[in-house]
Design brief:
By secondary structure, the protein is mainly beta. Helices cover 0% and strands 51% of the residues.
Amino acid sequence: VQLQASGGGLVQAGGSLRLSCVAPRAIFSVFSPLDMAWYRQALGKKRELVASISASGTTDYADSVKGRSTISRNNSRKTVSLQMNSLKPDDTAVYYCNAKQGVTSYWGPGTEVTVSS
């Protein structure tokens, strides 16, 4: 069971991207109670939490993206999105979508974001 992330690409500094993640059909029935999040991993660095949105809609952001990014979810469409603005070269990474409930966690292969200076 893998989440499918998309929307990455090459963008100039100052630009915007919208990442999207679709839950697989296998977890459609349990999507609404899932806590969703976006993580990223830059080359040579540890994976880090970028933004999260709980089942109730509470959001949280890493300081590095706060004010520049917005996470949202659509329970009807089983999707979670991350709008990123004012992108910086430091935002360059592979971005992963995560879904979690209790000890159960789902990941996908990620989508690559490259920000050129």
